[in-house]
Amino acid sequence: MSEHKEVLDDEPRSILMGIISQLSRGTDLSRVTLPVFILEPRSFLEKVTDFMSHPDLIQRAAFVDDPMERFIQIVRYYLSGWHIQPKGVKKPYNPVLGEHFRCKWTFPDATEAYYIAEQVSHHPPISAYAIYSPDNYLLATGELRPKSKFLGNSAASMLHGSTKVRFLNIPGEEYFITYPNIYARGILFGTMMMELGDCVTVKCPQNDFICNVEFKTKGFFSGSYNVIVGTIKKASTGEVLFEIGGTWSDKMEIRQVQNGRKGPWKLLFDVTTSQVFPKTVVPEEQQEPYESRRLWLKVTNALQSRNLNLATDEKTVIEDNQRRMTKERDENDIDWVPRFFTYKNGEYLPKLNHISTDPATANAQIKQFIFSQHEANVSYQELHPTRK
Length: 388
Known about the structure:
The chain has 388 residues and is an alpha+beta fold. Helix content is 24%, strand content 34%. The model is unreliable at 6-11 and 374-388 (pLDDT under 50).
């Protein structure tokens, strides 16, 4: 766990303490301007891709005949991405309205998965995303509504929202996934570090399976870091089918339960031997103005060169521009319309939500949807209504 710890120098610590002294317990941190030295140099829209660090675990799930084994593969994939954490307590950039991030993964068999995320709301902050892999019949959609709170010596990022996974070759089968909360410990005293906590679920109503996992936080005097405890049950009866244990930062295991008898533990996922799949991202100079890496490039460069004053100035430019455009829309009674997503029945769904079951046709649809430059130019004019 040491790789996720951090000890601040006196000056950054005093700056942070000065801000914290003005806060009360339970304060919503989304409206608090935090110093740039606690920033992780990438947008939250890109950080979401950490959940897809091992996409090979879900790549072939659509071709697994046994529903129970398919469900276990979904659970394994879901638990595999949490070990990707920055050193110490780092917070990604808050995406601005209309910002988007896109990338793709290429698998060993040359099939691909595409990712698109967009900041669809600023107050409250909502990030919507979709993952497509038509050759593997995979479509995952979801949204995250993070809400940060000050808790004394800790700050909590409550990850509201969920992901829905579908396989296009298995009609009607859907998986619904929720997220743990993230805690930044040691803000006032002690070593600063990140922890995951609370309970999450993975469920497939069609097959009557539900997985409940508790991300345990370490007690003050006892316990261990990063422990998970979970069960896979038959949802309708509560019958336990499997137990899950281990640590999300190291090894996780699973064992079958039959008629109350517990089988041997078997490896579910091993962080130490796993391969993080690299994502392919278009170079910044070829990206659109509101694509995450290009939008935040000057801030990122300043942070990486440890020029905190310049990073603060460049971050302020982006935030001031956001406020200016919000004011212009309000004055002209213009509603914001996301480019890639639409709000329907209480959730944000990608505008390309129904794709062909023919992989070649679907790939063409997805590339047109995510990478269309014509739409990009229109979108940029909408984002900057006063610019020529």
